[in-house]
Amino acid sequence: MESLYILIPIAILFVIIAVVIFFWAVRSDQFEDLERQGMNVLLDDDDPKADKKPQAEQQQKNDA
């Protein structure tokens, strides 16, 4: 029972901190563009020629 006198204020403090962080994120436009990062993964086209050249150099170094 005595531990509740410590745990309840700590829980309330955590809730207050979470609410403050949430409102800070909303005010600083952290949730403004949620689609862009997901689309960057889909639209990220790597140059296949650029990828093959370092691999060939790696194989030559490994063969030597």
Secondary structure elements and pairings:
Elements: H1 4-27, H2 35-43, H3 48-63
Please give the domain count: 1
Mean pLDDT: 80
Number of beta-strand segments: 0
Low-confidence stretches: none
Count of helical regions:
3
Radius of gyration: 26 Å
Task: Give the overall shape.
Answer: elongated
Estimate the strand proportion.
under 5%
Transmembrane segments: 6-26
Pfam families: FixS (PF03597)
Biased composition (Basic and acidic residues): 49-64
Keywords: Membrane, Transmembrane, Transmembrane helix
Can you walk through the features of this model?
This protein is mostly helical and 64 residues long. The chain has one domain. The protein contains three helices and no strands. It comes from Pseudidiomarina aquimaris. This is Cbb3-type cytochrome oxidase assembly protein CcoS. Keywords: Membrane, Transmembrane, Transmembrane helix. InterPro entries: Cyt_oxidase_maturation_cbb3 (IPR004714).
Task: Spell out the key features of this protein.
mainly alpha
Concise account of the structure shown:
This protein is 77% helix and 0% strand. It has 3 helices and no strands.
